[in-house]
């Protein structure tokens, strides 16, 4: 609007100097560059965000797809418009018939072929259930009825085509000629007629080769007979049965007797009512013979031909001629037939030998073609060489389709020949054919991957080809117009050329191309085109057909749905992929090929739903994949990880230069494989398998956690597998007995294990193995880490229950009259004689007590009552030692857990910090939990729980009560006990040097711990110390040693060797006893420290009162301070 209001003197600017065009081109180039960059960015984002997209993209997942096939909006009547009305009618009729044939062919290929082929498929592995066959056939009857209608329609179309052709080529002199047909050959119509007859032949072949269908049909008929005899039982009215039986008879006669094609050919084509003669039409016969190539050829060489009609249905001309053409059967004798079979076998063997070479050749061809596609399509259009550029693109596209066609033919024919001739296929042949399948899918995916650029090119190429065709037709038209002779024939030629031009001036739809081909059948007569013009025109039109239907042709030629019938090769293929892991990515192509049969399965009618067939197929393929690839891969990876972790065991030779090496990591670089409604992620599958295996095996043997952790790390480094931590409580190889096990069987533990006070270790008394088990602080700490610190209090509770039982036995022993009376006697004796014995309890008295007890009786294994009492005290002491170890292990575990806290004296309060930041309630609660955990760990690591104090406090009041006065004599039994203990200890240590080590031991500090604990409970440390027992022992043994030394000096003079040896042995024995007593003294002194032996019960009570008073004073002073 603004430009128009400007002064008229701007009008000169309308002069076109070409600058606007240049500017537009620059902008367009910039815009296209921006689009390309933006597309690349989007693809990058998509790949980064979505791992589920495979290397080979599934067509069904395209969010937006380009359909390149143009659809015709105009009807045939609108397309075929010239001034020549008769010609219009002729072309319209033939075009309509050809279109009808195409529709019928498409319907047969999509619906009827698949419905018949897949009948009986998808059954259960266990076999067909009784009655299932009849049910399937019952569902299938309606489909057969539709097929019957379809066949009838085909018959009608065939008759109509023949009638229309016979009407045009009429030998009746009296009949009026429609158009001059002497030089007109409608080759296109004959081609379409042939296609329709092939459809009927294919249906015949499918039904003839379908054994399951025939068997089920027979069963169904038998069922119908039984229904007929007893219709009431099946609730079917009898009047409905007869029409149904008639229908079945009709279906069987029309479809199942192998007469579909024969019945079509044997139809009555002469129709006097319409006045069309066929049988006696000589001109039509000549025309028919002209259009169908001559059958005069060498029978044997051409009968070897084998044609794949569809999927796994192969057609042999010799079989067909013998069964359908009696005249041909007469010409061929048995020798000829045997020669044909022999030659066919030879051909198959030759094919098998050359298959690998062919595959290698096509591998080179297809890969170079893919490179050409990438290079041509990535180049920008050069405006100066646009025609050459489009021509080269067209040739590359056509080349791709030709490669696909050749590969598809080789694969189908070879596989079907092996199947039909029932010959075994070698592994080499299977691998070669599978490689060819991959190449076929590679061609398809190359077209699909570059579909945007292909779409752009196709529209330009079709325009160029249409232009070339129009130029050729225009030249011919000028030639026709330039000739002045007029005739109806010349007028027909001119009209047909005009019609072809009109059809080409528009989108390249299949209807328009059909009209062009039919029009040129008329337009090429009278030598309108020179020979050198006609061939290029025909080539251009063929290219136009290919390019216009490029995507459809690629889809048809690369369709691998036939692999469903040859899926037995899949295990061999997977084994090959596994053995050659380097190019594992090719598996995507094979799965893409296996997926091709899904659309055709959707037309299966014999099952309740086609989903059942799909599920069966899916299950079958997945089972094969799991067995031949995934499970093998899982086990190999696991084996490799195990052997790598256990290299120190020096297992099999794993030198890759000797035994070879398979790099299975290539499988984990693959993107997920799309199959049906799932993505098969090999990496995730193997990771899950290893996670599951490692977890299960760790639960069985928790001490192996470190090994599996190492294997996880190795899997991550070597194969890039992101493993999940098991989060199981870890154990070490030195776990020893578990705390829970000891706790549950503490009575067994204290009797079978010996305590060492200084090293804080328990050692097994005796074992059937060659080694003894030990338990130390580290074992207990690991066990607490496994079960949590809560186990500590539970263990102490169990120990308390155990001590209660043991103290009951202890009390009974002390209450025994023999023991009590002896002890009271000894106490009275000591009080009376302590001044004479220098306040020391006499050693002889203790020794006499120890020996005297034996008179009361001994057990079958030679133990006195004092021995048993000593063992009881040792067990009590062991229990206390175990409690001490639990406390030490808990401190050890807590210190390990809290070692990551920087400063134990200054731990921040996380809950307060969260409140300050005003974070969510969940965060506040989490912070509170963290504070509580840190608080617990800090208090536990700093001091731990005083379990000894608790166990003293719980039993002391009862021990010191009046009703247990008999226990007050305990301190007096300690000296005889120590004598008994020392004798036992020396005996055990001496057994260490003997061959039979039964009963051997080198430590038993449980006795010292037990004595110290019981003395504390009875508050008898002072009473025991008043005996000065260990001083008395020292004095006794030193006195004896001095006596022995004097004797030795005397005997040294007399030089009596035997006596000297006796003296030396006596000295050693005395030294040994003195040493043992000293060790016991030290152990008992150490044990007393745990129970604060320096203070009496009264002193401890006074100390407790003082602490309480101090605490109350500090509490009362606090308010006063704050008030001031």
Structure notes:
This is WASH complex subunit 4. The protein is mostly helical and 1124 residues long. Among the domains are: 73-332; 564-719, no CATH class; 739-1095, no CATH class. A 3-stranded antiparallel sheet has the order 5-6-7. A hairpin with a 4-residue loop joins strand 5 (753-756) and strand 6 (761-764). Helix 14 (334-378) runs antiparallel to helix 15 (386-420), helix 30 crosses helix 35 (865-897) and helix 42 packs antiparallel against helix 43 (1057-1090).
What is the helix content? Answer: 55-70%
Q: Which outline best applies?
A: elongated
Number of strands: 7
Largest sheet: 3 strands, antiparallel
What proportion strand?
A: under 5%
Number of helices: 44
Mean pLDDT: 84
Low-confidence stretches: 1-13, 51-55, 294-301, 1118-1124
Helix/strand-derived category reads mainly alpha
Sheet with the most strands: spatial strand order: 5-6-7
Cα-based radius of gyration, to the nearest Å: 53 Å
The termini sit apart by 92 Å
Domain WASH complex subunit 7 central: 562-905
Pfam families: WASH-4_N (PF14745), WASH-7_C (PF14746), WASH-7_mid (PF14744)
Biased composition (Basic and acidic residues): 1099-1112
Domain WASH complex subunit 7 C-terminal: 923-1092
